[in-house]
Every structure is written in structure tokens, then in C-alpha cells.
Design goal:
heterodimer; A: alpha/beta; 9 helices; 10 strands; about 40% helix; B: mainly alpha; MetI-like fold; flat
Chain lengths: ~250, ~230
Amino acid sequence: MIAIHDLHKAFKGHEVLKGIDLTVKKGETVVIIGPSGSGKTTFLRCINLLEFPDSGSIQIGDRALTFQPGIRHRSKEVTAFRQRTGMVFQGYNLFPHRTALENVMEGQIVVLKRPKEEAREIAMDLLRKVGLEAHADKYPHQLSGGQEQRVGIARAMAMNPDVILFDEPTSALDPELVGEVLKVMKDLANEGMTMIVVTHEMRFAREVADRVIFMDDGRIVEQGTPEDIFDCAQNQRTRQFLRRLTEA
Amino acid sequence: MFFSDRATQVWHLLLDSFWPLLKAGIVFTIPLTLITFILGLILGFFTAIARLSKFKALAAIARFYVWIFRGTPLLVQLFILYYGLPSIGILLNPFLAAVIGFSLNVGAYASEIIRAAIQSIDRGQWEAAYAIGMTKRQAMWRIIMPQAVRVAIPPLGNSFIALVKDTSLAATITVGDLFRKAQEIAAERYEPFWLYIEAAFIYLIFCSVLNVMQAQMEKRVDRHVAK
């Protein structure tokens, strides 16, 4: 489903990703954990080309792109590729001049060219699914952070992506609002959505992930089932990271 | 006795000249303002886009244009267009020279306002638009511009009101606008004080009306955004 091979990315000479290989099966939920600065977010942003990798290759479904320094892909290829991935941002990034419903309709109308009525129905269904049917006509500033993020998830789902990327989706939320977002994500995972999640929510990782990946210093250090990682990590750095979390 | 005679005289002077001044305002000042503002906005918009373009040459041309027109006095620009150009064989009628001069000037300032407004929109908005598969153009028109307009309206409103008053400079290149008319009548009647006060009063009315319009427009575009 998703095959990523030897991905490298440097910012101004500083190498952030030092060769990442990852395959994700359809319907799998992969959670990426690791200390800040380990390259988790950059990796995620490379998958939907918000950052362009320096080298390596990414395949999603039947679309594949190979990266080399100095070679830019045509913007048509890039947008087509991005349409296969959905993204949920740490800061939500809802469109403030559009209602919740319009946020979910926007991509369907502009990018997928769905008729307005169809887009509205689909958007309404998705809002119902994330429990925000009653808030469809509100603007983002009238919603709580947790509600905003749930709209963000609905907006990503509306594009029927092959995979949804979650970039620390609950990090900006007040603690009491984290649960409602995680619940929506859990439902999605149970329905068979393919998901790659960067998060610090270890309980979510343990309960929902099919596979947990520990990243450090631009590399995947260790991966396995939640039990493998949380209960019997093999690598010293993984154990250190997890110990520091439980001490805090 | 003298006072009331004088007061009556001034009153008649003001009454007699009010309509000619207002007419000059309606026939020249207002059209000149509206035409040059619209042309200036269009010019400013494309200049802003050019300045943000990844094509370096285009950005450089835009920066050069803004540099010239912000760095030289409007009055000098008008004089070059109307009194200077004929010596190299280009004769413009006064109104056209004024339209060109003011538009280029407004365009330079507006481009900076529009550029700043576009750049003030959070990068996350571009990313969210890209993440659902939008092209750069779609992101610009559907997501960024509607938000940038809201940011740009107050400073553009200021430019517009400044322009209403700056058009009085057109009188120096013989455009028969409100101020030119006031100068003519003042010379005829030897009453500069009252005529210029009256001209100022009419400008004040124009600007006050615009202030109200601007406030309403801001309220309209601000509806959906948190304070």
C-alpha cells in the first residue's frame, strides 16, 4: 500500500532524515514516537510532499515518486500525489472564512470537482461521524479546539485518501479535549482506515496502534507491536526514551 | 453694520461658488479618484504577485517599480508626465496624465499593502490547502486571498482617502478639479480665504462619506473572524 525507501532530507546542511524505510499495509495504524527533533514530523511532511525529500522514493497505492537532488516534479504530479494522502495538523489549520461544513466541502468541490449537493451530503455524513452535525454551520472560531480538530479529520477524510497522516493532532489541545479527538481516531482505525500517527499519547499508541515505530536522530531505531516496544524494547535508546516519559 | 454687510457678502460668495466647486468635484475629483484607485489596485495586485513570484526577474522588475514610485514625490511624477514628456514628443491631455500618474503611484503603495496582507496569512493555511490537493493558484484564490482581503481593507481604505485629497495636485497640471476651480474663483473674486475654506469643507464631506463606507465594509468582511 505504502512503500517508502531510503528517504533523506536535510535543512541547510543539517541532515534531519538519514535514510528511512517503511512499508505500511492497507488498514494498518502505525504510530511514530520519539524525542523532539528526531525527524518524526519532517518524515510525515515528506510523505505528502509538504517537504520535498532530497532522495529516496515514496509509493502510495499505484502512484510512485522518486527523488533526486535538483530534480523537481511537475506540480500536476505533486498535487495528484497529495490527493492520495490526507493530513491532520497539530494547529488544525481550518479555513477561518469557511464554516465547518464548508471546510469539509472545499476540497471536494475545488479538487475532486464533486457537485455541490453531493459534496454537502458527504460533508454532512462525515460531520455526523465525528459528532459535529449540530455545529455544521459554525465558523472555526466558534468551536473548541477539540471540535476544530474533529472538523480537520472530517476534512481529510472527505478526499477519500489512501492514508491519513496525523501530525501530533492532540498536542495543541487542552487536556480535557484530547479524549474526544482520540476517540474519533480510534473509530477510524477500527473501520480500517490506513493511518500514520505522530503522537506523544502513549496510551493511544498502546491501545490503537498495529505497529509502533521509535525514531531517533533521523532514523527508525526500532519497530514492533505496542507490546514489543513498550514492554520489551530491545534498543537502549528506546528504553531510555520510554523511561523518561514514565518518570515525568 | 459693516459686519453684517460683510457677513452677507461672504455668505453669498459661499453660496455662489458652492455649486461650481461641488460640480468640479463630481465631474473631476471623484471620477479621477475612482478610476485611478481601481487601476492602481489592479496594478498593485499584479505587482504584489510578481514580487512574491519565484521568477527572480519578475520580482526584480516589480521591486524596481515600487522603489521608483515610492521614492519620488507625486508632484514631481505628475510634472514629468505632463510638462516633461512633451519635450520627447509625448503629449498627454491633463486628465490622462493625472490618471496615469496617480494610478502608478497608488499601484506602488497598494502592492506593498497587498503583499504584506498575503504574507500575513499563516503558512498553515497554504499547507492545509496543499494537503487537500489544491494547486498553488487554487490555494491563492480560494484560501489565501479571501483572508488577505480582510487584512488589506483598512490600510487600502486609508490609501483611498489619501488619494481623494492627493487628487488636488492634479490642479497643478491644469485639470479642472475641485481645487483648480477654487483657485479660479478665488482669483476672480479676491477671496482666497473663504474659497479655500469652502474647498476644504467639500473635501471633508467627501472623505467623511468614504469613512462611513469603509467602516461598513470592514464590518462586513470581519463577520466571521474572531477578534
